[in-house]
Amino acid sequence: MGALPSKAMKPRSVRSASGPVAAVRALVDVQFRTILRDLRFALASEMQSGQRVLDLGCGEAPYRSLFCEYGGGSVGLDIPSGFDMKFGSQTALFDGSHLPIRHQSVDWVVATEVLEHVADLEGLLDQTVATIRDGGFLFITTPWSARLHYEPHDYLRPSPNLIERMLTERGLDRVWVRSRGSTASVLFNKLLITFIDNLCKPSWAFIVLPVIAPLMLVTWIVSYVSESLGLSSASDPLGFSFLYRKKSQART
How many domains are there within the chain? Predict the structure, then answer.
């Protein structure tokens, strides 16, 4: 992989989906909060005890404890990225192109905020679907309203229409698709990133902070309430979550 541009955005990695630190992060990180919400919903409704999960592009494997909570075991898979990730002993490294996983060997594949970094999406999906047992599940989240990050390996923002076409062509049936975040969530996320990016600039902070802080508070309250009521933007959210099931004898 090539070297990162010096100013490439590197989102702070999520190290755990449980515990007090995760709870605090979920309050302010709308992406993390909505991903965690949808992943919990998918596992609670469909996972059976003893099922095996491939956590594709797992980073620091924050959801491993969640898989265990719902009765599953997991193996993580990622690339040697140089993005300051701290991989654990249960994470295998691969070249980003050829999955070192046997066909029909896992019950779930979970890929959260991964597909936008895949140059050969068709090829990776072919291999990914092949690893899933018939009747198994593929859970995906993708960003929509998101800055370029982890450059130069940020390639696309796949729409639900593209995901639908690519997965149905590979023998998967849609269980559900959800948009993540309301318009207020998108606005709050943009304000938060802008605030963090400029926090260490004293002149900016003293001049703009009195303006941006009230806006952040208002948009955070509206976004939190809207999500609690199950409201989201269907056409321009923060991102999307997908749950698909593999048919018997699916094409791979």
Answer: 2
Nearest to 118 by CA among 136, 98, 133, 102: 98
On whether both 176 and 90 belong to a single domain, the answer is: yes
Q: What is the pTM of this model?
A: 0.88
Task: Note the residue count of the chain.
Answer: 252
Domain, as residue range, for 120:
20-181+234-246
Q: How far is CA 245 from CA 73, 166, 172, in A?
A: 19, 13, 5
Residue 132: which residues within 8 A CB-CB, separation 6 or more? Answer: 104, 106, 107, 108, 109, 138, 246
Kind of pairing between the strands at 172-180 and 239-246: antiparallel
Closest by Cα among 4, 11, 109, 131 to 57: 109
User: For residue 218, is it within any domain?
Assistant: yes
Q: Are the beta carbons of 30 and 113 closer than 8 angstroms?
A: no
The three-class DSSP label of residue 66 is helix
pLDDT, tens digit, for every residue of 47-76?
A: 999 999 999 988 888 999 999 999 888 999
Sheet (strand 132-143) strand order: 91-93, 73-78, 52-56, 106-112, 132-143, 239-246, 172-180
| Six token digits for residue 211 | 């303006």
Bridge partner residues of 243 (DSSP): 139, 176
